[in-house]
Amino acid sequence: MTHTPSHLPPAITVFVQGVGLLGPGLAGWGPGREQLLGTAPYQATRCVLPPPMALPQAERRRAGAVVKLSLAISEEAVAASGLQASTLASVFTSSSGDAVNCHEICSALASSDRLISPTRFHNSVHNAAAGYWSISSGSMATSSVLCARDASFAAGLLEAMVQVATEQVPVLLLAYDTDYPEPLHSTRPIPDSFGVGLVLAPCRSDITQAQWTLEPTACLSSLPADRLDAPVLEKLRQDIPAARCLPLLQGIARQQSGRVVLDYLEGLQLVLQVAP
């Protein structure tokens, strides 16, 4: 039996104001919602990353897959929320960062000249996507950048919910992963790009899509993580760390009330109470 310390904080409740989604066969939250409902067929076609048109031309040329993915999901989520991007604090979370850029730097270091492109070096830091976001949005608000390998979505969600509760401001959460080329792909076999953007707010509004509550003991559970009924979507959830969000997104699509359990660190899960 788990002992609950008396000094634990109260439950944290946030309200989902906007969703952005992009992944294999998921070309935005609108079609993705229908696929999670089962009212539209899901086909795991290759993820198509749109050009980051919100960036100035010089930065647009330097943008890699992670930047394209994170900006696409952020734009959709913020537009749905009705809020100003420039005012939003943000949390970025990814299990691997810019996989292609990492591959190119490793290839350069293994070559005879070992020269690294300044653009490659510039994009190698884990917070590069957050920097491009601040340029495209004009946001001067705080930004946190996390990595917790396969637990990265849950870690980012926990960070974003705590920020919403403590600061009483909306927070944009962006969780994303891209695939490595070989030979790194054999070690880290993420099959494709996937990203989700969530605008989380401290108060309900006319456009609230869901209510999520995290109890103080929510990281102490040994319950199994929720799975998806559709085998192809469940495989996507298992294959890409950022796609661990899919049970929560399915709850939004179905307007469900109840409990959703997410994988977190080894032996731990996040347990959320969800409501429309």
Short description:
The protein is of the alpha+beta class and 276 residues long.
Unreliable runs, pLDDT <50, ≥5 residues?
Answer: 1-8
SSE string, helices as H and strands as E: EHHHEHHHEHEHEEHHEE
Oligomer: single chain
**Main β sheet profile:** 8 strands, mixed
Tell me the strand order in the biggest sheet: 3-2-4-5-1-6-8-7
Radius of gyration: 18 Å
Describe the structure.
The chain is α+β, with helices and mostly antiparallel strands. The chain has one domain: Thiolase/Chalcone synthase (Peroxisomal Thiolase, Chain A, domain 1, 3-Layer(aba) Sandwich), CATH 3.40.47.10. Helices cover 35% and strands 19% of the residues. It has ten helices and eight strands. An eight-stranded mixed sheet has the order 3-2-4-5-1-6-8-7. It is globular. The two termini are 31 Å apart. The N terminus is likely disordered.
